[in-house]
Amino acid sequence: MLEVAVYLGIHEVVILGDYADFYAVSRHRKDPRVQTLLLDEVESVNQGLDELDRLFPEAKRVFLEGNHELRLESYLIEQAPALFGVTSVQHLFGLERRGWKFQSFGRNQAYPVLGSSLLAFHRPQASSARLHIQKALADSIYGDIHKIELAHAVSRDKRRVTAACPGWLGDVSSRVFDYMPSVPQWQLGFAVVSIETSSPDFHIEIAEIKNHSLVFGGKVFKK
């Protein structure tokens, strides 16, 4: 649904992590019925980044590493230490060459969206937006849980704070899901953040994708 972003005129693109899965080098038990080659995934991710680069050549682009991208580093450290430093997420996806800003996964990961108080990172402090905001009491947008959620709270200094997870943009037709023991409670979607030019306030709108289409700003977009 990149048409929506093009339609709106985007100044900044922020990937909230887990853009790559690195299933082939994860610690999880591999199902032999799922054909997974690291080379194929790297090629697919690069194709996705190529599309974003083509659509938003003037926008600032930020890649926040998620725990799934971290699987590559963990694999190199544990299984192939001689290759550590030879390759990396940044190297495989050419992020520096592409002009993407990269932030590593971890507790210090935080990116102020459009220079506002809204901090983007991958992993929240709890399993839902409602519980996260009670702990963080800070404006937050994150990935990790892949569910569409939005929560609001008021801090002790009477600031209204917002926490949002915009869902995910993965391939729901992937055969990986055929072998999962339960249906994942994930929803397709993304967020559009707007900043008021005359104030530091921001607004979050979540675009939910259903049956290959969505309605945003009164306009229907179809895949």
Biggest pleated sheet: 5 strands, mixed
State the end-to-end CA separation: 6 Å
Low-confidence stretches: none
Separate helix tally? 6
Structural account:
This protein is an alpha/beta fold and 223 residues long. It has one domain. Helix content is 23%, strand content 25%. The chain contains six helices and twelve strands. It has helices at residues 2-8, 38-55, 70-79, 89-92, 95-98, 129-136, and strands at 12-15, 60-64, 101-103, 111-112, 119-121, 140-142, 148-154, 160-166, 189-195, 202-208, 213-216, 219-222. The strands form four sheets. The chain has a five-stranded mixed β-sheet with strand order 4-5-6-8-7, covered by helices on one side. It is globular and about 50 Å long. It starts with a helix and ends with a strand. The mean pLDDT is 90.
In brief, what are we looking at here?
With 223 residues, this protein is α/β, with parallel strands linked by helices.
Layout of helices and strands:
Elements: H1 2-8, E1 12-15, H2 38-55, E2 60-64, H3 70-79, H4 89-92, H5 95-98, E3 101-103, E4 111-112, E5 119-121, H6 129-136, E6 140-142, E7 148-154, E8 160-166, E9 189-195, E10 202-208, E11 213-216, E12 219-222
Parallel strand pairs: 1-2, 2-3, 5-6, 6-8
Antiparallel strand pairs: 4-5, 7-8, 9-10, 11-12
